[in-house]
Amino acid sequence: MNLRQLRYVVATADHGTMTSAAQALYVAQPALSRAVRELERELGAELFARSGRGVVLTAVGEQVVRQARIALGAVDAIEAVTRGSGRGSELRIAATATLEPELTGRLLPRFARDQPAVRVRVVRCEGREAVGAAVRAGRADLAVTDLPVPGDLAAHPLEQREVVLVSAPALKLRDPVPLAALDGLRLIMPTRGTARRAELDAMLARIGAKAVVAVESDERSSWPGWVRAGRGSLLWYRNQIEDTDGLVVRSLIPPITRTIGLVHAHRNLTPVAREFLAYAKEHTG
């Protein structure tokens, strides 16, 4: 048994799937799954049982996770003694499910390569309110979220994102697309009940548009293919669309934009949090 295995087990319990836990810890999912299985074999007990697309703790797993949290808390307290000396530092960043892939796929890998002694942990939150609560309570050093935020949080804008409409060439629309044209348009949407879907539903409600949901899926890699096949159009952020071959990407008029930033409580940041804040400002925008 080792600390890495305990961290992986706790993260899996917190996030509900091994894929999400691996993303939060910035490790490969197969490596995390393998470490959890090795711990289960060592203990001679099953810690997780499958539940739908995720996992849930078994009775033994609940006891193991409870003790693992105590052990990891003690380790974190010991490491805090050396924080600021460049060894044993931890950076905790809160993010919603919508923004987490951008964070773990773009900013954190480069920062981790430059700061190999820093252990980075993503605190996944459901919604903006939960992100702010994590920072206020000290569960996260920083948070990436939509701006503006309440005045009790310090905000640092990083970049502005544009919402665009992605369609098959056969769909004839003006460019840029008037917002009124979104009313009644067939769209490929994230699954109902997810943070991404709630975000798009709120966006459409603000502009008074009611789209026709043609496909519901969280498999982002499949979205471009469905658009090409004419099953529906896609509303998404320009900088998050990677595969646009054979598709038409149109701006909206008036434009819909979203400002993303890092926020923190009005208190002294740890040295590594200050370093990441400066790094993020330098590498975004």
UniProtKB/TrEMBL annotation:
Keywords: DNA-binding, Transcription, Transcription regulation
Lineage: superkingdom: Bacteria
Domain named HTH lysR-type: residues: 1-58
Gene3D superfamilies, A to Z: 3.40.190.290, Winged helix-like DNA-binding domain superfamily/Winged helix DNA-binding domain
Classification via InterPro entries: LysR_HTH_N, LysR_subst-bd, WH-like_DNA-bd_sf, WH_DNA-bd_sf
PROSITE patterns in alphabetical order: HTH_LYSR
Family membership noted in the UniProt record: Belongs to the LysR transcriptional regulatory family.
Family matches, as PANTHER family: HTH-TYPE TRANSCRIPTIONAL REGULATOR CYNR, TRANSCRIPTIONAL DUAL REGULATOR HCAR-RELATED
Name of protein: LysR family transcriptional regulator
